[in-house]
Structure formats: structure tokens, C-alpha cells
Amino acid sequence: MLSRGVLYVHSAPLAVVPHVEWAVARVLGSPVRLQWANQPADRGSGRTYRTECSWTGRPGTAAEFVTALRNWPMLRFEVTEEPSPGHDGERYMYVPGRGVFRAAMSVTGDLMLTEDQVRSVLTTVRGAEAMVHALERLLGTAWDDELEPYRQAGEGAPATYLTQVS
């Protein structure tokens, strides 16, 4: 049984690019060569690069990518994994200084909140403004807000297609 997803590295310094490729290769079990492009959204912090790749692998591969890539705290990246039989989809985002955000993802790409998450907000949060902040945390709004300029700057960039070795 295979799952599919997409890895977006929105921002990586040139010195880290080979390390990202090696990390992706370790997860997939085969050498990879990603297509990198300049990341124009990253002004002021030196020149950085972006890449994206669609991948096929066993369920849980997205989490393996996150574990491998969060070793470089200067990266900005996100990984999605589509639902597969017996497994929910997942979406991960990583932003320097914020760390990792993870949420379950539906077949349409929407984030899913669990009953326990909603009940926790309803029983512990008082006031409309606090409710909004709690729901924004559950939806990863701060991560989305920080990544959006990098996503827009990457539109039309080349993509690579990778398959995990069994």
C-alpha cells in the first residue's frame, strides 16, 4: 500500500541544499536530484533556494521527511501526505522559531479537527477573541501566514517526482 504527497522546501540556504537532498534520499531509500530555484521572497537573509517534489511511498513518509528536515532550523518547509486506506492524510509546516505544526488532512486537502480538540477549546476558552485565537492555533494560521509569501514566490517553479524504494 502506497501513499502520495508533496514536499515543499520553501527556503534553504545554498550550503544546506545538498543536506536536504541527502535527507530526502535517506527517507526514500534512493538517490535524488531535486530541481532548485532562487527564492525571491527571502530578502535580507542572504540568497536562498526552493524546491518541490511529489513523492510516492509508504504511509508515514511525510512524518519521516519532517523528522529528517527539522535538523536544519533555518529551513522553511511543508509536507503533505494524502489519505490512504487505513491512514488519515497529514499536513506539516515548519517555520524557524515556530517549529513544527501538524494536522490531519481530508481527501479534499482540508485540515480536520478532532472532537477532543474542539471540546477542549469549548471547555477551556472564554470569550470570542480567545476562541478565535484557540481555533487559529489548531488550524496553524501563524504558520500559514509566515509561509504564504514563500508559496506565492514559488508559483511556476519546477517540480520533481520521486518514488520510495521498497
How are the secondary structure elements laid out?
Layout: E1 3-13, H1 17-28, E2 37-38, E3 48-57, H2 61-69, E4 76-81, E5 89-95, E6 99-105, E7 111-112, H3 115-124, H4 128-139, H5 141-153, E8 159-163
Parallel strand pairs: 3-8
Antiparallel strand pairs: 1-3, 1-4, 2-3, 4-5, 5-6, 6-7
Structure description:
The chain starts with a strand and ends with a strand. The longest helix has 13 residues, at 141-153. A hairpin with a 7-residue loop joins strand 4 and strand 5. It is an alpha+beta fold and 166 residues long. Helix 1 (17-28) runs antiparallel to helix 2 and helix 3 runs antiparallel to helix 4 (128-139). Strands 1, 2, 3, 4, 5, 6, 7 and 8 form an 8-stranded mixed beta sheet that branches. The model has no long low-confidence stretch (mean pLDDT 90). It has helices spanning 17-28, 61-69, 115-124, 128-139, 141-153; strands at residues 3-13, 37-38, 48-57, 76-81, 89-95, 99-105, 111-112, 159-163. The chain has one domain (3-112, 147-163). The chain contains 5 helices and 8 strands; from the N terminus they run βαββαββββαααβ.
Kindly provide the radius of gyration, computed on alpha-carbon positions and rounded to a whole number of angstroms.
17 Å
The fraction of residues assigned to DSSP E strands is 25-35%
Major β-sheet, in short?
A: 8 strands, mixed
Count of helical regions: 5
Distance between the first and last residues' Cα: 11 Å
Overall number of domains: 1
Please provide the count of β strands.
8
Q: What integer is the average pLDDT?
A: 90
Gross morphology? globular
Structural class: alpha+beta
* Helix percentage: 25-40%
